[in-house]
C-alpha cells in the first residue's frame, strides 16, 4: 500500500522556459546549447548537486567555460513557474492521510528558493541532494528518503520527468512514474490505489510586493484560476 508520494522538483513542480535560455545565448553571442551543455556536464554537475561546491561557484565556472560571466549570471537568475495543479495533487494526497515529499538534485540555495516560491508548507518534507551528499539516480539518495520517512520502497510512489532518475527508485522497489503532466500523474496515482480528498481548508497563495505568503480560504477554485507565479532562481540541475 502506498503511504508516501515523492515528487521531483524541476520539471514536475517547477518549470523553466527553454526559450529563455535560447534568448540569453542569442543576446550574448553564444551558440545554442552552450550554457546548459557546460552547466550540466560532468563532473561539474555532480559537484554542485552533491554539495561539494556552491551554486555561486557553479555559475562562476559556467561563465568561465562559456567565456561570458554576464551570460552565466543571467542564465542563473531566469524565472520559473510553479505548477498549481501539481500542488493541488499534493494537498489532496495529504488530506487523504498520505505524506508527500520532494527529492531534488539541487544546490545549496534550494531552501531559499522553496521559501521564495511559497511552497514550503505544501509538502511534508523536502530532500535536497546537495545536503544529502548523493544525487539521483544514486540509490543512496532514495534510501536516505526512505529512512527519513520510515517507509519501505514498496510504500512509496515516485514521479520524475527524467527516465534515468527513476532507475534508482525502481531498484528500491518504489512505484515509479515518468511525469508528463498533472493529469497523467493523477491517473497513475489512482491506478496505484491512491485516494484523493479535498482539503478541509484550501490553501491559496497571495503575492504582496513580490513576496509569497500563505493564506487560508474556502474557495476551492482559488488556486486553479490564478496564473502561474514566476520567481527568479537557479536553473534545474
Task: Throw out a few tags for this protein.
single chain; 237 residues; Rossmann fold; 2 domains
Give structural notes:
The protein is an alpha/beta fold and about 240 residues long. It has two domains: about 5-15 and about 80-230, Rossmann fold (3-Layer(aba) Sandwich), CATH 3.40.50.1000; about 20-75, no CATH class. Helix content is about 40%, strand content about 20%. It contains twelve helices and ten strands. It has helices at about 20-25, 35-40, 45-50, 55-65, 70-75, 85-95, 110-115, 130, 140-150, 165-170, 180-190, 220-225, and strands at about 5, 15, 80, 100-105, 125-130, 155-160, 175-180, 200-210, 210-215, 230. The strands form three sheets. The protein has a five-stranded parallel beta sheet with strand order 5-4-1-6-7, with helices on both faces. A three-stranded antiparallel beta sheet has the order 2-3-10, covered by helices on one side. Helix 7 links the parallel strand 4 (about 100-105) and strand 5 (about 125-130). The model is unreliable at about 205-230 (pLDDT under 50).
Q: Please give the CATH class of the largest domain.
A: Alpha Beta
Distance between the termini: 32 Å
Uncertain runs with pLDDT below 50, 5 residues or more? 203-232
Q: What kind of sheet is the major sheet?
A: 5 strands, parallel
Roughly how much helix do the residues carry, as a percent range?
40-55%
**Order of strands in the sheet with most strands:** 5-4-1-6-7
CATH H-level superfamily title of the largest domain: HAD superfamily/HAD-like
**Average of the residue pLDDT scores:** 89
Rounded to the nearest angstrom, the radius of gyration is 18 Å
